[in-house]
Specification:
This protein has about 375 residues and is an alpha/beta fold. The chain has twelve helices and eleven strands. The protein has four domains: about 80 residues, no CATH class; about 80 residues, no CATH class; about 120 residues, 3-Layer(aba) Sandwich (Rossmann fold); about 60 residues, Nucleic acid-binding proteins (OB fold (Dihydrolipoamide Acetyltransferase, E2P), Beta Barrel), CATH 2.40.50. It holds the Pfam family PIN.
């Protein structure tokens, strides 16, 4: 069907080319209009024949080119297609308006070449602007709609979202495999729309189909968490059908999509977090949230722990809180696997986490704070 359409278009071009240019050809070779050569029917037939011969060489390349363009358009978001089309049209209109200044010029370069160059340049610039500034267009459009709504419904109180609110939250592969995003959504602390791009879903499927049993379990867990999120219906969960074929890494695609949609990335990946911050993309790091929610302890506070192993220093014992925080207990090696009431002497915050130092509550030593 595609090849047939190309042939029809080329045939129509042949008709136009024969009608327009063949009279000049006959005039150049010295043949005036007659019943056999220089006439309307003959010119059209010759134009169609010439274009048919040309089609034998260019039909297949044109078909492949059109097929690639169709595939790219199918994978593009409708928002991007609309915005780029509108911006290209605006660029072409501006080019036509500028070209009218040269339309009455007698110079061939001014009345023919310059308008074509302007159309190519401004059309391309319009395409780039529409593709890379979709988020800005949305902000302007939504801001205008919001102002109209506020003017129309002056007596209605609307919730105003600040600059820190992002309607779209992008989920990466690691956060779905981790699973804590499901518990976080159930508590109601996540608002907006959770968006799962196709390339993240494909990566999860690839991991779930891995020959490695550990990877296979992690991939299936991520798919299960995704299905639970859709079933929970606490927040909307949507799929993004587009892709960035010129980018290979999934993390780079996420950052590109976050910039495009003015979205925030939800992850627990340390490297993705740092790269996103460097590129001015906001990140919600679940690990940072868990770290911020750990309970604070102060010197002199009492707690009951169970020493489970010896420490690195002589007579020390090691215990853990429910959140995984390590507690080093003086003389704790004598109370292994026994509940023990201790008094906090100090707390240290390191890159690896938080450490608490304590001593048995019945010890007679004074509390010494460690800096």
């Amino acid at each position: 069907m595609r090849k047939r359409m190309i042939q029809i278009v080329l045939a129509i071009l042949g008709v136009g080319a024969g009608y327009s240019f063949m009279p000049f050809f006959w005039l150049a070779v010295g043949i005036e209009e007659n019943i056999w050569a220089n006439n309307f029917v003959t010119n059209i037939i010759i134009g169609v024949i010439v274009m048919y011969l040309v089609s034998l060489f260019i039909t297949d390349p044109l078909e492949k080119f059109i097929q690639r363009m169709e595939n790219r358009l199918v994978h593009q978001s409708p928002d991007i297609i609309i915005s780029t089309s509108m911006s290209v049209i605006v660029g072409l209109i501006i080019a036509v308006l500028i070209s009218t200044l040269f339309s009455h010029s007698q110079l061939f370069i001014l009345n023919t070449i310059i308008p074509i160059v302007l159309m190519v340049i401004l059309g391309y610039l319009g395409f780039i602007v529409g593709k890379n500034h979709l988020g800005d267009f949305k902000k302007i459009l939504f801001a205008r709609r919001k102002n109209e709504k506020q003017q129309t419904n002056a007596n209605v109180l609307d919730r105003k979202a600040g600059d820190n609110f992002h309607r779209v939250k992008l989920l990466d592969t690691n956060i779905l495999i981790d699973g804590r995003i499901y518990d976080l959504v159930k508590t109601g602390f996540i608002e907006g729309t959770l968006l799962v791009p196709n390339f993240v879903l494909y990566e999860l499927q690839y991991i779930a189909d891995s020959a490695d049993s550990i990877k296979r379990v992690r991939g299936r867990r991520g798919l299960d968490i995704l299905n639970k999120l859709r079933e929970e219906k606490k927040v909307p969960v949507e799929m993004y059908e587009g892709d960035f074929e010129d980018i290979q890494e999934v993390d780079s695609k996420l950052i590109k999509l976050a910039k495009l949609l003015d979205a925030v990335i939800v992850t627990n990946d340390y490297n993705l977090n740092k790269v996103s911050e460097f590129q001015n993309v906001q990140v919600l790091n679940v690990n940072a949230l868990a770290k911020a929610l750990k309970p604070r302890v102060v010197p002199g506070e009492k707690m009951t722990v169970t020493v489970i192993k010896n420490g690195t220093e002589r007579q020390q014992g090691v215990a853990y809180l429910d959140d995984g925080t390590m507690i080093v207990v003086e003389d704790g090696r004598y109370y292994i696997n026994k509940p023990l009431e201790v008094i906090v002497t100090s707390a240290l915050q390191t890159d690896a986490g938080r450490m608490i130092f304590a001593k048995p509550a019945h010890s007679g030593r004074e509390i010494k704070e460690k800096n």
